[in-house]
Amino acid sequence: MKQCPSCGRKNYGNEKYCPICQCYLGNVKEESNVTSYNKSKQVPIIECPYCHGTNTVKISTTSKATNTVLFGVFGTKRYKQWHCNSCGSDF
User: Fold this and answer.
1) Are residues 35 and 52 in the same domain?
2) In the chain, what is the straight-line distance between the N-terminal and C-terminal CA atoms, in Å?
3) What is d(CA 49, CA 46) in angstroms, rounded to the nearest whole number?
4) Residue 83: which of 37, 41, 44, 50 has the closest Cα?
5) CB 88 within 8 A of CB 54
6) Are residues 36 and 54 in the same domain?
7) According to the model, what pLDDT value does residue 22 have?
8) Chain CA centroid to CA 13, Å
9) Are 80 and 90 contacting, i.e. CB atoms less than 8 angstroms apart?
10) Domain residues for 22?
11) Which pTM was predicted?
12) DSSP of 25-67, one letter per residue?
C-alpha cells in the first residue's frame, strides 16, 4: 500500500500516478498496515519527579483498593497514579 505524499490518499494498486492529484508515486515506498499503525501510535513517556527515571508503571485500581483496605485512612496509594521502579516512589 502506498500513500500519496501530496494528498494523503492510500493507493492499493500498482498505480504510478495518484488518481486524485496526479502526483507521481514511483519514488514512494510501500508500507504495511502494521508499520503505519505503529507510526501513528504514540506512547507517552512518564518521568519520575524525584529521580527523573522513565521506568514507571501505572498503579492499578486493584492495588489502590488493596492498599486502602489494609491501611485504611493511612493508606496514601489511592491518591497516587504512577509508581517508579527505579527509586520505588509513588506519585
Assistant:
1) no
2) 44
3) 9
4) 50
5) no
6) no
7) 72
8) 30
9) yes
10) 1-42
11) 0.51
12) -TTPPP--HHHHHHHH--------TTT----EEEPPHHHHHHH
- Tell whether 48 and 88 lie within a shared domain: yes
The answer on 23 and 52 residing in a single domain is no
CB atoms within 10 A of CB 36: 13
| DSSP letter (8 states) at residue 13 | S
Torsion over CA of 21, 24, 27 and 32, rounded to 10 degrees? 40
**pLDDT for 24-83, tens place per residue?**
776 655 554 444 444 555 667 889 999 988 899 999 999 999 999 999 989 888 889 999
pLDDT value of residue 44 = 75
Same domain as 9, residue 30: yes
